[in-house]
Amino acid sequence: MHPRTVALCAALLVLGAGSVRAEDPASGHRPRMERVATYVMKPGAAAEIVSVQQHTARALLTDANARTVDLIDLTGPTTPKRIARHTLLATDGEELTSVAFHPTEDWFLAVLRAADPKAPGRLLAVGATDGALLGSYAVGTEPDAVAIAPDGKTAVVANEAETYWRDPATGAFRSLRGGCSIADLSNGPGAMTLVTFTLKDQTRKSGFTKAAHGRSLERAIDLNGDGRIEGDAETKALVRLDSQHPMHLEPEYVAYAPNSRRAYVTLQENNGVIVIDVVKKRVIAAWGLGTTTHAADTDNDGTVRFDRKITALREPDGIALTPTGRFFVTADEGDTEPKAAKSKGKTLVGGGRTLSVFDALTGRFIGDTGNQLDLAAHMLKTYDDDRSDNKGSEPENVVTFHAAGVTYAVVGLERAEALALVSLADPTKPRVVGAYRLRKKSISPEGLAVLRRDGAIYVLSANEISGDMTVFRFRP
Question: How far apart, in Å, are the Cα atoms of 439 and each of 32, 43, 60, 281?
Fold first, then answer.
């Protein structure tokens, strides 16, 4: 076993079936989280995104399958109660992908993908209490995320534009360009103004995915031009990233800086992050995130051994700024697939399996967790060895908070049904200090949010497959 793995196993303390934790040597604390509640939507729900309004202790939880949003009372965080269920005014085929609660007012934003993947998506402003439609605005193609600035004055939508089709003239795959929409909220939800732009090529810069990496996107494609997606050949087609064309840029997730002037957007498939000046309404930086090298289990052979050295493109999904805005952190899930769609035997694999820390002003790499996330899941007995050759536990999303003099991150492990608590006391050496299982029936943590209530800190996890939300309380 790799020496670092031995040291981490010794440091992590198993606390029964539901958690593992360790002392954080950089801070001297023994922080932990405890599961205090589960909110269940309904059978067949897909709970994807949770967004919180701090001063009212209310949360929004999306059901992507039904295109509904639950408004939840969290004034008693251990007993979450549904206040209302709002059905969005969606047309046939539209897909609800994200919501964001306004920080101070009684309304929220929701984004919908159009049934036609080449058509603009929609940004809806909706009354939080009554569910009334307050405004509907066109955004870019296939919007995937929306975030509202902490000051409530602007919002940013990530328009992913991930669908491809085959050009009948050349046989080549084509896609619309991804981009972002910036909404000015200063005149209220019924009179917003928007600027939508597509992204210019950034992939010639260091650290982005290159054609030489031999990476592909697994996409649903209408190969025969009959207007339908059907059969394995069309639902699992691989599009090679064999050019630097900006049509391959796919904005994924958005996080604001605490000062509300900048928004950070992950380009998951492209292994990068862009920074938007929301005042000047333009991209001011683009950073490739490079690779991580650490021990991993790359063989789904029924035995978990972190004894193979991998070098992986990070391919971040979720992103968050630390409370001071000094750093940004990424959940390095992975999305593109190698030619053989597996990690074993590859010199460059997809998905870092890490949480990574970067300087928010320069994009400089600061540190990552190595194999700690997968190791913690293994110690918790939730690590799925079937995923060993394909992105491991898949860190999906991340949130941050500050408590007892230390900055922490919480990472959702999509394939391990757990959350990991990471100390950023030393940002050059982010340390997993605990891992916590969702309840037994809860599956696939997707969206995360932080609630501060009566001096306590709670972390909310929207669990996609099981259609519920888990509430954890943090204890320093």
Answer: 16, 16, 21, 43
For residue 288, the tally of other CB atoms under 10 A from its CB is 22
Quote the pLDDT of residue 164.
Answer: 87
Please tell me the predicted confidence (pLDDT) of residue 212: 86
Contact 468, 47 (CB under 8 A): yes
In the chain, % of residues over pLDDT 90 = 76
DSSP state of 325: S
Identify residue 188 by its one-letter amino acid code. G
Domains and CATH numbers, the chain: 66-288 (2.130.10)
The model carries a pTM of: 0.95
431-437, strands of its sheet edge to edge: 13-14, 19-21, 431-437, 418-423, 406-413, 395-403
**227: Cβ contacts below 8 Å, ≥ 6 apart:** none
Can you read off the two tokens belonging to residue 442?
């809860």
Helix, strand or coil, per DSSP, at residue 232: helix
Composition of the chain by helix, strand, coil, percent to 5 = 5, 50, 45
Higher pLDDT, 202 or 4: 202
